[in-house]
Each structure stands twice: as C-alpha cells, then as structure tokens.
Amino acid sequence: MVKGRSRTLLLLVFGLWISTVVVGMTAPSPPANVNSTVSSRPKVVKIGALFTFNSVIGRSAKPAIMAAIEDVNSDTKVLPGIELQVLLHDTNCSGFLGTVEALQLMENEVVAAVGPQSSGIAHIISHVADELNVPLLSFGATDPTLSALQYPFFIRTTQSDYYQMYAIADFVEYNRWREVIAIYVDDDNGRNGVSALGDALSKKRAKISYKAAFPPEASQSDISNLLNEVNLMESRVYVLHVNPDSGLSIFSIAKKLQMMSNGYVWIATDWLPSVLDSIEPANTDTMNVLQGVVAFRHHIPDTDAKKSFVSRLKNLKDKDTPSFNTYAFYAYDSVWLVAHALDVFLNEGGNISFSSDPRLHETKGSLLNLASLRTFDGGEQFRQSILRTNFTGLSGQVEFDTDKNLIHPAYDILNIGGTGSRRIGYWSNHSGLSVLAPETLHTKKSSNTSSTSNQKLYSVIWPGDATTTPKGWVFPNNGKPLRIAVPNRVSYKEFVAKDKNPPGVQGFCIDVFESALNLLPYPVPRQYMLYGNGVRNPNFDDIVDQVAQNNYDAAVGDVTIVTNRTRFVDFTQPFMGSGLVVVVPFKEEKSSPWSFLKPFTAQMWCVTGAFFLFVGTVVWILEHRLNHEFRGKPSKQVITVFWFSLSTMFFAHRENTVSTLGRLVLIIWLFVVLIINSSYTASLTSILTVQQLSSQIEGIDSLVSSTQPIGIQDGSFARKYLIDELHVAESRLVTLKNMQGYIDALQRGPKYGGVVAVVDELPYIEILMSNTDCKFRTVGQEFTKSGWGFAFQRDSPLAVDLSTAILQLSENGDLQKIHDKWLSKKECATNDVDSNKLSLRSFWGLFLMCGVVCVFSLIVFFVRVLCQYTKFSPEPEEGGDEIQPAKYRRTSKTHSFKDLIVFVDKKEKEVKEILREKSRKRRRSKSLDGISNSPT
C-alpha cells in the first residue's frame, strides 16, 4: 500500500510538472488570493470528458457524449439560456498520460469531468478531483474498490463489478459447481474484481481454486503458457475478467489448445458483450471461437428511447464503430446527470466560482505552476445535487442509494452460439437469476424472489455443442492418479484387505468404491496405497489426518464418519450403517423349577391375586340375597368366595350368577382374566426358550458404571469415544488385535484376565457372532449412530459425485448384493429375559376398568338395600292394636347397624314378601280410619 501511494504521488508530481511545462509555464500566474468568479447564471458552463478515444469503450462513448451535449443544449427545460460545453481529453490507455490530461483539464475550470473508463486511471485522478472539489462521473470504471468513502468526489455512473461478481457466483451455484479458475489482467480492475468474486463465491460455499493473472501487455506466448498451466488443473470452469481490447485473443489461443471443447465452461464478464456489441455483426471466425461461452452484460431496459438513440448513433457519418455497447448509454446518461444536477444547483442559488488552493502555492525556487489548478468553490454543494438527482435515462433509473451506487443493478446473461448470442436470463440483486426482465420484478414486493428455489434460466449450449451441464471439473491431464489410502487390516479382512492381484486390495469397501466409480460419467485414474505395517490395525484418525495434509487424495475403507474427522475432510454418503454396541458372552441355561413365576413381576403377582379375592367378594355380596349357592354357614361362604375367585382363572366356576350387577362384574372380570392368561402363556413360552446372559452387564450404562475391564478393537475410534465422551478410565480399556483376541478375552472373563464386555461397531460384531455360532450377543441398544464413508480432501468434487453414485447403488440393489457377497452372516437373536417379564404398567388399564365396575355395582347395590331398609322398619303407629315384634323394632340407634346387617343377610324374596304385607296393612288401616271419621 505504501508503495502504491508513492507511485501515485510520483505520477502526480510528474503530471504537474508536465502540465506546467507544456501548457502554461510562461503564462503569468494569477494572484494567490484572487477568485475567478462567474455569475450564478453563466452563459457557458464547461465540463470535461476523460477516456481513451481509440478503444472499444471509447469509440462508443464519444459519440454518445457529443449527442448528450447536443440534446442538453437543445432542451429548453434544462439549463435554459446556458450552453454546456465539453472538453475532450484522450487518456491513451495510460495511467501517466491520463493523469497529465486530467491536470490539464482541471486548468480549464470545469465543473465536472465525465470519465475515465479505466479503473486504474480513476484511482489516480480521483485524488485530483477530491483536492479540487470537482465531481468525477465515471461511466466505465467498475473496480469495486473505488469507493465513495475513499474518494468522495468519485461518482460511479455505471454498475460496480461487485454486483457482477455476485451474479457470476449465483450462476456458479445454479449449476452446482464448487470451484472456478479466475483468469484476469493483473491491474487494479482485474485484481479487485477477482477479489470480489472470491468473496461472493465463499458465500455460496464455492471458491476460486486458482488465480491465473497475466500482465496488461502480455504476449501470446505468455497467455498460451498460462492457459496450458490452468489446463492441467482439476477445475474446468473459467471466469475471464480482462480488458475489452485484448480479450478475444485469449479465446483464440484457448481454441488452439482445444480448451473450447466439451467439458469446459467459459464465463466472461461484461467486457465480451462490449466487444461483440461494438463489432456487430461479428465475423464468422470470431463467433466460431466463442461458441458456448456464457457472458454477462449490463442490463439496459428495452425501451423506445433506447431504440431511437441506437438508430440515431448508427446513422452518424463520422462514427468510429459500426455499433455501440452499453457504455454508450451510461456515458450519455452521465452528461444528462451533470445537466440535471447543475440546473438544481443553480436554481438553489449556487455560484460557479473557482479560487486558489493555499496548499497548491508554489514553493520557493520551484518551477511547478501549482497555482494554475483552481478549486471549485461550490463543488461540495454540486456533488450533493448530483447524488440527489433522480431521473429515468437510457440506461434505466438513474438514482443513487445510501452507498452512492446506482440502484437496481442488473445484468443480462448471454450464451454465445451460431452467428450471435441469445439471452438465457437475467440477474438482479432483487430477484437473482430469472427469465423475467428485472424491471418487471422490481414492482413485486415478495421477499422470496431471490431464494434458490425460484432461480431459473433457459437452457445453455456449452462448448462442444453440449446440452448437458458440464461437471465443472476433471482429473488433471498431467497423468497423476488419485492417491488412495487403504487401511492394512489384520482383522475383519472381509471389509478391506491386501490382495496379490490388481488393484492390490479387495473386500466389501473396495467393491463398493469400484462400483460407485463405474457409475461416474468420467474416468478416475487411481492408485491404492496400503496404510499400516500389517502387524496391527492402523489408527483411522491418522489415516484421515494424512488425507487432510494432502499426503493422500482419499481414504477408502471402513472409515467411520465422526465429528472430529468431518472438520478436516469431506465424507461421502454413508455406504454402511454403523454404531457402537456392547457384546457379552451367552450360555444356555436350564429352566428353573420356579420359571413359572418369571412371566410376571412381583408387583404384578400381588395385584392380580388381590383382584381375584376382591372380585370374588364383590360377586358374593351382589349374589348373597338372591342366589342360594352363595348362602349357608359362614365357613362355607368363605370357601365359596375363594373357590369362585380362583376358578374364574380357568373359567371353571360352577356357581351361576343371577343378579344383573353380579353378571356385569363377572363379564368384565372374565375379560381381564382372558388377557392375563394369554399374556402369561406367551411370556412363559419365550422365557423357557431364551438364552441367558452370563454376566450382569445389560447395556452401556451398566458397563460404564462398573469397574471391570472393557475390550476395544485396535485402531478404533471407540477408545477416544469411551474416554472423552463417557469418561471411562483409560486403565479399564484392553486393546484387542483380532477376532480370536475377542473370543479369548470374553470367554476368560474379568476373573481370569479377560474382559467383561467388548465395545465395537455393529458390522464387526455381526461378523464375530456369525463366526462363533452366536456364542456372544449384543445387549442394550446402539449408543451411537454413524456410518462408514469414503474420505476426501476438503471441497473435493469427487465426494459429491460419489455420494450420488452410492445412493444409486442403494436404490438399484447393487449395494445389497455386494453386502451379501462379503458379509453373509447367521442371524443371532438378542432376546433379553428381563424384557419378557410383564409388569403392572402393561395391565393397569384393565385393572382400573374392572375396579371401577366393581365399585359402581357395590354402590348401586347398597343404595337399593338402604331404600328397602327404610321401608322395612317404619315407626309404630299410634293407638294401633297391633304391636310390631320386638326383633323387627328399632329400639335405639345402637342397634340400627346390627339390624341393618341382619336385614342385608335376609333373602331378597323374604324381604319383598314382608314389604308387600306391610303395604297391605297400611292400606287397610287407612280405609278403617276413613269409615270411623265419616258423619253418621
């Protein structure tokens, strides 16, 4: 940065010196404190124009600027009575000469300067504009670093490349590319534009894999060498950001190098449409070179004013170009912007006056005529007027946002083909990619128009006349195969192992990888490289780390996808489900004499027995008054209750129920008994046929809480997981090298130097159980959920393509066939005895229903009995001849409960007969009273 500032100051000093020598070294300098002032409504106002006349942009801009001056002067509504004059200065594509021309222009006391077209020159002369308070309206400097914060008097009247690079990034994301190569001219515009592209791509999870820069004056051999270099790289998506005057030669060289064929993607920034629009119609040779290129062009609304203006320019006799590009519209609108703002400036009382800058006084003994440069006194007010201006020009709406950029940036997306180009869509910062014109979408208030799901473009014809979207990358042409690390396992070789025959490895994982590669539409040269000494299994974290450090391009094998590994490499879609499980030894256990008690828990047995007695008692109460089978001596009744209750278990009860409530209770209870019997039978059958655990380990929780040794596989991530996540003491972990080590350690057990259980991934354990005739079983559930995948370096496109291929293998059944080929296994049941026990939790609903029915029946029964008892024992009638027997008379409250019990014990038939007799006597007594009380 310091070096750049020194160069800028050096150029500025040289420019001042040249301007002094060439223009006015002999002219007397005006007094330092004397102002050159013009009235508030001058007759003539001068503006400047700085650009390279003989350039693609300059040849279009010059007639547009002159046409704008002519239109402004002929318009009576803008600057009435004032003639707008333009002073043209040619920058000659030179930073030094451009600076000199700018200084010479400023000596003519211009109120604004239109230009320059070059971002490099704009960086330099913006310092001059800021010093002299002269607005600099650039219609061609698109460098995104030309900020109004750094250069207040620099006003960009075209779109910044910041937006163009975001448009390209959206296009890259739309086609699902992950990497691009940027080819650009090594100047301010090229470097800063590519930097903005990198920022835009990073937000789309893509990147610039290589920046290929060449000097502004590069020869064809330099460009050829550069293209040969990028052609050896993986990415086939090239973004070309160069100057319009020399860009076509790059495509010609690329054509000779066969880089314009099938599989390549070329994206050109707005420089290419600028060239093609200027040479329209383009010759056949040029178009043949550009077939399939996608280019971005500033969007200019297709209005009648635009068509009329283009027709007008094409009819000019002294024009230097057969046609005109979009910069002509921006140059035209820049002049009108000055005119509108100047009109407002003068109407608001602004004066066009210039004065000497005290900081530009000549130093003693200096030959530089610094005082010839004058400061525009109303420059700041005029600048504000420009930024507030709002009108509709040929380029669209001319209005500035808070960052002093034109609003509604938009681009046309062109596809070069045949003898011209066709528009495949648009991009705007409001809607993203769309096939609808941006100006029609600005009226929509939907905030989701730029979402990924709404992005749409028409089809593209790619280089080589390809209609399918290129993958965007291939393996480099330098002949280097993919370096694939394969774990050199000493156990479980069904998954991956060394092989004498090519390709040198074999196994389930290798077959899956090879089958997935066969589904890719491009060849993948590869070389398998064994990792490990063959004596013990390698550490899989080390393999992944080697891939991350670029010592290998990929790792293929039984590599588990875990969190700490995904931070350094990219994994494919899992091709094998996995998870850690606990394995313990099993043994056959003979049935116990008390096995019949195991189907139910103790709580279940207790509640079931209590309900048998409860239901029997309820039925006895409900049937006692009606059913002679439930009457008799007390000892007989107790036996009846027990017999009836237990006999319902086998549906063998002999006693019939005659009451409605008793039958209701019995029906519900028999349904409950049916369910309990069925469940008991099924559970007992399972228990009598199941194998029993030989240890007390029931899962990972009981294993962690114990203090006994745990076996793990050598090289597995289980060690780190148990220590870091489950906080198991490292001293408890025993490393087992192979399957035989598993068997020996589990059979010996912790008492004889073995382990109580083994923690390993499910695929390995399935092989272990199959090869040992199910002598070992898993307990509990998988306590991690993961899978095996192929590891690649970060952002490798091959990881994405192989993930799709693995899904295809799974969908068409090939993955299962490979699994059956290598991993056919014997199924081992993993039943747990405790899981077959039935608890009260499974039946409490049945017991609740039965209990509610019993209580309800008892309530109805006792309410009915109380009602009868009330009618059965009335107070004796006064003066009555008949005296109630003493045993039926309630003499006191102390005997009422006993009387009630006696009443309840009576038969229902006897009670009803007594109640009927009482009713007859009561009616007869009432009739006698009526006769005695009648008049004689």
Automatic annotation (TrEMBL):
Function statement: Glutamate-gated receptor that probably acts as non-selective cation channel.
Membrane-crossing segments per the record: 602-622, 664-688, 843-866
Single GO molecular function: ligand-gated monoatomic ion channel activity
Domain of life: Eukaryota
Cystine pairings recorded for this chain: C774-C828
Family designation: Belongs to the glutamate-gated ion channel (TC 1.A.10.1) family.
Transport recorded as keyword: yes
Matching CDD domains: GluR_Plant, PBP1_GABAb_receptor_plant
GO biological process per UniProt: cellular response to oxygen-containing compound; response to wounding; signal transduction
Region ranges (Disordered): 915-936
Identification of the protein by name: Glutamate receptor
Membrane association type: Multi-pass membrane protein
InterPro entries tied to this protein: ANF_lig-bd_rcpt (IPR001828), GABAb_receptor_plant_PBP1 (IPR044440), Glu/Gly-bd (IPR019594), Ionotropic_Glu_rcpt (IPR015683), Iontro_rcpt_C (IPR001320), Iontropic_Glu_rcpt_pln (IPR017103), Peripla_BP_I (IPR028082)
Organism taxonomic ancestry: Eukaryota, Viridiplantae, Streptophyta, Embryophyta, Tracheophyta
Pfam families in alphabetical order: ANF_receptor, Lig_chan, Lig_chan-Glu_bd
Compartments where found: Membrane
Keyword Transferase appears in the UniProt entry: no
GO cellular component: membrane
Domain Ionotropic glutamate receptor C-terminal: 483-825
Signal sequence, renumbered to the chain: 1-24
Keywords: Disulfide bond, Glycoprotein, Ion channel, Ion transport, Ligand-gated ion channel, Membrane, Receptor, Signal, Transmembrane, Transmembrane helix, Transport
